[in-house]
């Protein structure tokens, strides 16, 4: 038996018991693998759901053949788990994650780093913590500020960490932030410091969610 975490359209995130799933001959082996997009029939017990039937829709099996892609997909799964409480529904985040896993699995975007950056940007939008990128009036530097606000005079004030960007990076981040997912496949955005950008956005997520990612290291380590 094993307990899995499911992120679903109807129930949000929840845990489920799968009887016999560790047996190599079990009918549930394929449908309960990490990243697998499956259709489940289950009933809800006192503390857990219990899976009765399962059917694979897309296993994203190609991700398991590429360490770099596997690291990125594992990061997506971990962040979704950290970002949402049990039974907190977020269909938009589910659709976004499935689309990006598909893009990653099928090599539909020229730069895998842009898939990760899009995931980070869009997830924070959905969570109500949309990053802003601006030019500091005093220093004339382009920045991402983790905790900015305006006072009554309209003068910009900032608290918390902030990280420097180039003007081009700020512009490209805004582009990806607003870009519909399907257009990501045709995007020509290139970040010369992609590891730096991913790291800053991961720090931004950790700051606002008050969590710590254990898998992000492998994303940049494999790039």
Separation of termini?
35 Å
Radius of gyration: 19 Å
How many separate structural domains?
2
Average pLDDT works out at 92
Tell me which CATH architecture of the largest domain applies here: Up-down Bundle
Count of helical regions? 6
Shape: elongated
What are the salient characteristics of this protein?
single chain; OB fold (Dihydrolipoamide Acetyltransferase, E2P); de novo design (two linked rop proteins); 2 domains; 6 helices
Element layout with pairings:
Blueprint (H helix, E strand, L loop, with lengths): L1 E7 L3 E7 L18 E8 L4 E10 L8 H17 L7 H15 L6 H15 L6 E3 L6 E9 L5 E10 L1 H12 L15 H16 L6 H6 L2
Parallel strand pairs: 2-4
Antiparallel strand pairs: 1-2, 3-4, 5-6, 6-7
Helix pairs in contact: 1-2, 2-3, 3-4, 3-5
Description:
There is one protein chain. Helices cover 36% and strands 24% of the residues. It has helices at residues 67-83, 91-105, 112-126, 167-178, 194-209, 216-221; strands at 2-8, 12-18, 37-44, 49-58, 133-135, 142-150, 156-165. A 4-stranded mixed sheet has the order 1-2-4-3. Strands 5-6-7 form a 3-stranded antiparallel sheet.
Summary?
The chain is α+β, with helices and mostly antiparallel strands and 223 residues long.
């Amino acid at each position: 038996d094993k307990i899995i975490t499911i992120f679903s359209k109807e129930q949000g995130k929840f845990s489920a018991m799968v009887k016999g799933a560790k047996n190599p001959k079990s009918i549930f082996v394929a449908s309960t693998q990490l990243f697998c997009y499956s259709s489940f029939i289950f009933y809800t017990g006192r503390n857990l759901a219990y899976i009765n039937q399962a059917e694979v829709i897309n296993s994203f099996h190609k991700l398991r053949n590429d360490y770099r892609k596997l690291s990125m997909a594992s990061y997506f799964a971990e962040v979704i788990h950290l970002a949402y409480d049990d039974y907190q529904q977020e269909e938009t985040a589910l659709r976004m994650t499935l689309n990006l896993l598909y893009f990653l699995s099928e090599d539909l975007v020229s730069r895998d780093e842009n898939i990760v950056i899009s995931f980070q940007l869009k997830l924070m939008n959905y969570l109500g913590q949309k990053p802003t990128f601006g030019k500091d009036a005093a220093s004339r530097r382009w920045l991402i500020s983790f905790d900015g606000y305006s006072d009554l005079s309209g003068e910009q004030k900032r608290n918390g960490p902030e990280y420097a960007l180039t003007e081009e990076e700020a512009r490209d981040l805004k582009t990806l932030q607003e870009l519909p997912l399907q257009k990501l496949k045709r995007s020509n955005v290139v970040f010369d410091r992609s590891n730096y950008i991913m790291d800053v956005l991961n720090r931004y997520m950790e700051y606002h969610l008050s969590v710590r990612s254990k898998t992000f290291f492998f994303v940049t380590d494999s790039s």
